[in-house]
């Protein structure tokens, strides 16, 4: 006795960002950690550890490099139907980090310091948002 199963259309799996989201999360967390380190380094400099100014400068260079990678990783997430606002906030963070570095190197500290606070806040917010459970769910397709 054989039982026949009705033919059904192939099950189409929901496409979700997995590898791209993992890469975005990694870059976002490392960016946030470097951003958090910047005020620590400059605080050490002000406390008398003058070598910390070199660490602050090296941290700025590393942040600029990470700021180049973050929108690329966010673009990969968006390409596989991930959250579009990852790309928007990554671009905002990219601009903040580069403006922040320019202001620091030109010693415009009255803008460098408040923008630094904003940069740390945005970097931490992007990292936390990337780690939330809903970050990997695909965005809805409008018809």
Task: Itemize the secondary structure elements and their pairings.
Blueprint: H1 19-46, H2 52-79, H3 85-105, H4 109-131
Helix pairs in contact: 1-2, 1-4, 2-3, 3-4
Structural summary, described in words:
The protein is an all-alpha fold and 143 residues long. The chain has helices spanning 19-46, 52-79, 85-105, 109-131. The protein is elongated, with a radius of gyration of 21 Å.
List unreliable stretches of 5+ residues: none
User: What is the chain-wise order of helices and strands?
Assistant: HHHH
CA(first)-CA(last) distance: 46 Å
What's the alpha carbon Rg, rounded to whole Å? 21 Å
What percent of the residues sit in helical stretches (DSSP H or I)? 55-70%
Strand content: under 5%
* Number of E-state strands: 0
With helices defined by DSSP (H or I, 4 residues minimum), what is the helix count? 4
Could you say which overall geometry the principal axes of the C-alpha atoms support? Answer: elongated
**Tell me about the biggest sheet?**
none
Q: Give the structural class.
A: mainly alpha
Mean pLDDT over all positions: 89
């Amino acid at each position: 006795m054989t039982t026949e199963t009705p033919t059904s259309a192939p099950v189409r799996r929901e496409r979700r960002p997995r590898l791209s989201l993992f890469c975005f999360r990694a870059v976002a967390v490392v960016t946030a950690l470097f951003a958090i380190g910047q005020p620590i380094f400059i605080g050490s400099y002000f406390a008398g550890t003058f070598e910390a100014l070199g660490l602050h400068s090296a941290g700025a260079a590393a942040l600029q490099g990470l700021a180049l990678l973050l929108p690329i990783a966010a673009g990969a997430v968006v390409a596989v139907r991930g959250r579009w606002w990852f790309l928007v906030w990554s671009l905002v963070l990219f601009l903040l980090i580069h403006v922040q570095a320019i202001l620091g190197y030109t010693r415009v500290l009255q803008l460098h310091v408040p923008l630094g606070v904003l940069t740390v806040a945005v970097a931490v917010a992007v990292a936390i948002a990337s780690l939330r459970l809903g970050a990997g769910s695909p965005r809805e397709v409008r018809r």
